[in-house]
Amino acid sequence: MKKKKSLNQKVIFGLVIIFLVVILLFGCKKIYITYKQNQEKKAIDTRMDELASSRVRKASYLEKSDGWYYFMTNDIVGDIQYPYLDGCNIKYATLSDNYRIDTNLSESSKNSKVLVTPPSLSTSYKTKDGQKFEGEELNEINDFFTTNSWKREIKANDLSSLKLINFNVNDIVKLWNEMYKSAGLSSFGSYSSYNECMIEKNTLDDDHFQVGVIFNYGNIEIVRIDYVYKNGKHLTDIVDNGQPTKLQIEIYNNIKMIEKEILNDKNFYLNNKFTELREDDFYKDLFKIFEKIEENKNK
Q1: Which residues share a beta bridge with 89?
Q2: 171 by DSSP, 3-state: which?
Q3: Which of 3, 54, 150, 265 has its CA 20 to 30 A from that of 143?
Q4: pLDDT of residue 102
Q5: Three-state DSSP state, 120
Q6: Is 271 left (phi over 0), alpha (psi -120 to 50) or beta?
Q7: Residue at 289 is within a domain
Q8: Are residues 234 and 267 in the same domain?
């Protein structure tokens, strides 16, 4: 009887040992799997950091008519390219044929048109043939560049398979080649919190200054200052049409000097330049717009 009891104890002890060994092996396996996953995650994170640090933004810009600017950007991460063509208008805050369809509104106003500020090519419903919109054709062009992401300059015949109606093939070739040859930027500038294009002004109803800006990777690339009259006329149009007064020519020349200095300094502080203009009541609103842009850049 004692012998049988002793045998049972040995069996139970053996089972306990086996159970503990199984638990230990399972625990070790779990620790190993967790360790391996952590190592793989570290490797992925390291690779992502390496790719992020090697990211370069190349860009080119083309001024078109009536406040429109086209641009080609290419974010290069390692061997991968992300080319993108778009454009915006920094003369007009809104245009009637530039909008997005809002599908998130109530049933009564569903699919209503919401004007985009500032207008962009990607949201343009302008069309030359009455069938294909600019925004639609732009998507086709960008899909084409996603598939054909060359690492060289291109010629018009490289785009022969594109059926262009609203865009000029020579504009696209020029934008690509200038982008390709550009030095590129590897770090964001001070204005990275802003969208690529913006228009700032202090009033909607009265005569007012207006500042349009295009940023490249958070850096000031293009600045367009205008004075807009209550009737909707732009000072730049009045000067271009050859009908300005002496005072309007003076304002226009001051605007051009300010634009030049902003691009030279790469900020809107202007390092306390234009002291006389700052103290002139007529220009005070313009410098307030500059202050607003600087104050909001970190928000």
Answers
A1: 68
A2: helix
A3: 54
A4: 80
A5: strand
A6: left
A7: yes
A8: yes
Listing DSSP states for 71-85 in one string gives EEEEEEETTEEEEEE
pTM: 0.81
> Pick from 139, 138, 161, 158: which is nearest to 149 by CA?
158
For residue range 151-180, what is the model confidence (pLDDT) as tens digits? Answer: 999 999 999 999 999 999 999 999 999 999
Q: Which two tokens stand for residue 195?
A: 């969208």
Last-in-domain residue among 122, 156, 181:
181
Same domain, 169 and 86: yes
> Could you give the CA distance from residue 185 to residue 59 in angstroms, rounded to a whole number?
9
- Within 8 A by CB and 6+ apart from 58, the residues are 73, 74, 76, 179, 180, 182, 183, 184, 185
Q: Quick one: which of 207, 210, 242 has its CA closest to 226?
A: 210
What are the tens digits of pLDDT across the range 180-207?
999 999 999 999 999 999 999 987 678 9
218: left (phi over 0), alpha (psi -120 to 50) or beta: left
Is residue 166 domain-shared with residue 204, that is, in the same domain? no
Q: What is the DSSP letter of 86?
A: E
Domain range for 41 is 1-53
What's the domain count of the chain? Answer: 3
CA-to-CA separations, 162 to 73, 102, 157, 158, 207, in angstroms, rounded: 19, 30, 10, 9, 44
SS3 label, residue 115:
strand
pLDDT of residue 70: 98
Q: Is it the case that residue 48 has pLDDT exceeding 50?
A: no
- Residue 244, number of CB atoms within 10 A of its CB: 17
Tell me the chain's radius of gyration from C-alpha atoms. 30
Same domain, 17 and 99: no
Residue 239 is predicted with a pLDDT of 96
Max CA distance (Å), the chain: 124
DSSP labels, 223-266: EEEEEE-TTS-BHHHHHHTT---HHHHHHHHHHHHHHHHHHHHT
